[in-house]
C-alpha cells in the first residue's frame, strides 16, 4: 500500500477544484475544497503557481485535490469542476492534444487509479465559487492558504 494513502476514514467525499491564470501563461493559482456529501468542510487549499496557463492550473488543482482526498482516506470521490476541457478529457470525451497537458493528464489518471471509486462532472462557475475564491486569494496574496485540520493527523 502506498504510504501516502490513509486507511479509509471517509466512505464518500466531494471535491471541487478550480485553476486560473493571469496572463495565460502568467501568475496562476489553484483552489480545492473537499467536503462530506452533506457539505461539511473537510479540507481546503489555495496555492499559487509562479507561471502557468489556465489549463495547467486546472490540472494541477485536480491532481493536488485527488492527492489530498487520498491522504484523507476516501473510498468514493465525487469530483466537480467548472473546467469543461478537463472534465471532458478525464472522461475520455475529448482527446488530450496539448504536449503541456499530456503529462498532467497521465498524472491525474494515475492518482485517480488509486481511488476505489470516483466520478467527475462539470458544474457551472457559480456552483464552484469557493474553489475559485481560493485560487484568486492565493494569486492575490502570492501564498498558500490551507485549512489542514483534518489532514494534519494523516501525514
Give a description of the structure.
The structure is a single chain. This protein has one domain (about 10-150): 2-Layer Sandwich (Nucleotidyltransferase, domain 5), CATH 3.30.420.10. The chain is built from four helices and six strands; from the N terminus they run βββαβααβαβ. It has helices at about 55-70, 85-90, 100-110, 130-140; strands spanning about 10-20, 25-35, 40-50, 75-80, 115-120, 145. Strands 5-4-1-2-3-6 form a six-stranded mixed beta sheet. About 40% of the residues are buried. The model has no long low-confidence stretch (mean pLDDT about 90).
Task: Describe how the helices and strands are arranged.
Blueprint: E1 10-22, E2 26-35, E3 41-52, H1 54-72, E4 74-81, H2 84-90, H3 102-112, E5 117-122, H4 129-141, E6 145-147
Notable traits:
single chain; 155 residues; Nucleotidyltransferase, domain 5; six-stranded mixed β-sheet; 4 helices; 6 strands; 32% helix
Short overview:
The chain is an alpha/beta fold and 155 residues long. It is built from 4 helices and 6 strands; from the N terminus they run βββαβααβαβ. Helices cover 32% and strands 34% of the residues.
Report how far the terminal alpha carbons are from each other. 15 Å
The second-level CATH architecture is 2-Layer Sandwich
Report the CATH topology name. Answer: Nucleotidyltransferase, domain 5
Alpha-beta content class: alpha/beta
Strand content: 25-35%
What is the overall number of helices?
Answer: 4
Shape: globular
Per CATH, the superfamily is: Ribonuclease H-like superfamily/Ribonuclease H
Q: How many whole angstroms does the radius of gyration measure?
A: 14 Å
Broad CATH class: Alpha Beta
Low-confidence stretches: none
- How many beta-strand runs? 6
Overall domain count? 1
Strand order of the largest sheet: 5-4-1-2-3-6
The portion of residues assigned to helices is 25-40%
Arithmetic mean pLDDT: 92
> How many strands, what sense, and barrel or not for the largest sheet?
6 strands, mixed
Compressed to H and E, one letter per element, the order equals EEEHEHHEHE
Amino acid at each position: 500500500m502506498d504510504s501516502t494513502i490513509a486507511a479509509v476514514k471517509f466512505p464518500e467525499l466531494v471535491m471541487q477544484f478550480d485553476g486560473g491564470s493571469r496572463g495565460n501563461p502568467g501568475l496562476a493559482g489553484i483552489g480545492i475544497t473537499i467536503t462530506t456529501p452533506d457539505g461539511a468542510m473537510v479540507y481546503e487549499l489555495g496555492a499559487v503557481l509562479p507561471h502557468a496557463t489556465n489549463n495547467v492550473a486546472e490540472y494541477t488543482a485536480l491532481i493536488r485535490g485527488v492527492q489530498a482526498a487520498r491522504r484523507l482516506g476516501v473510498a468514493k470521490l465525487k469530483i466537480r469542476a467548472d473546467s469543461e476541457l478537463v472534465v471532458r478529457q478525464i472522461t475520455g470525451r475529448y482527446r488530450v492534444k496539448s504536449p503541456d497537458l499530456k503529462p498532467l493528464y497521465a498524472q491525474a489518471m494515475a492518482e485517480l487509479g488509486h481511488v476505489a471509486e470516483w466520478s467527475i462532472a462539470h458544474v457551472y462557475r457559480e456552483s464552484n465559487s469557493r474553489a475559485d475564491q481560493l485560487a484568486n486569494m492565493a494569486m492575490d496574496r502570492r501564498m498558500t492558504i490551507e485549512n489542514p485540520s483534518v489532514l494534519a493527523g494523516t501525514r
